[in-house]
Q: What sequence folds into this?
């Protein structure tokens, strides 16, 4: 029987040299939900995602995915297990075309017919990418590059997609589009772990949220409740 929690982080500690960046956090990501980590710059949000993805090693703690311990496993093993990361700053391949970028996302897959279907699916999410299929990634606008980064991650058919600041630096109309797409991806069965400085947008679409401050979780609760929380309003929502 499948565990109802697709991801469990237990007492996670991460250091950069002598800096204690993540200080014993516990996070649960239920299967099929959208979970958000919010907090100021330097709170430990990106470090947490990087550690799950195998890009940064933890000093202590456990990361359990689908019932298996993936703590400090190499990033390609984590990806093969079914986790994809959309990194902060997009990190697309600027000298590859849109199509080639997307195929890089599907590099480990052998199911050619299904890859074609998934290509059409990401084009249905982001029609602009289809129009620019032969363009080099580096020539796209910031918003289009973000669409490409999300689509490339989806092409690996992840069970869990982690997104680090997907709305950062985007025009307001594109921010709304990105949040709509996150909801759509989730409604079609992919679990989402989201890191966002746009706390209002993120909590509005989230089932549950965690507030990080200097490497610790200081608040947690359903997205709607955190949106109404006075401390959260003051610190993150500018209200």
A:
């Amino acid at each position: 029987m499948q565990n109802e929690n697709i991801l469990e982080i237990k007492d996670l500690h991460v250091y950069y040299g002598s800096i204690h960046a993540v200080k014993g956090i516990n996070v649960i990501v239920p299967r099929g939900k959208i979970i958000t980590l919010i907090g100021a710059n330097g709170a430990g949000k990106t470090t947490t995602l990087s550690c799950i993805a195998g890009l940064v090693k933890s000093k202590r703690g456990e990361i359990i995915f689908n019932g298996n311990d993936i703590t400090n496993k190499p990033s390609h093993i984590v990806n093969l297990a079914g986790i994809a990361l959309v990194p902060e700053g997009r990190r697309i391949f600027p000298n590859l075309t849109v199509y080639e970028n997307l195929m890089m996302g599907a590099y480990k897959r052998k199911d050619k017919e299904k890859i074609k279907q998934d290509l059409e699916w990401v084009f249905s999410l982001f029609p602009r990418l289809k129009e620019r299929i032969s363009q080099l990634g580096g020539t796209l606008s910031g918003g289009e590059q973000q669409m490409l980064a999300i689509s490339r991650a989806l092409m690996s058919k992840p069970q869990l997609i982690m997104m680090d600041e997907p709305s950062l630096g985007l025009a307001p109309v594109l921010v709304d589009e990105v949040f709509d797409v996150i909801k759509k991806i989730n409604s079609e069965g992919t679990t989402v772990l989201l890191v966002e400085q746009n706390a209002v947008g993120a909590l509005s679409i989230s089932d549950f949220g965690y507030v990080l401050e200097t490497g610790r979780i200081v608040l947690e609760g359903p997205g709607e409740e955190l949106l109404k929380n006075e401390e959260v309003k003051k610190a993150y929502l500018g209200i």
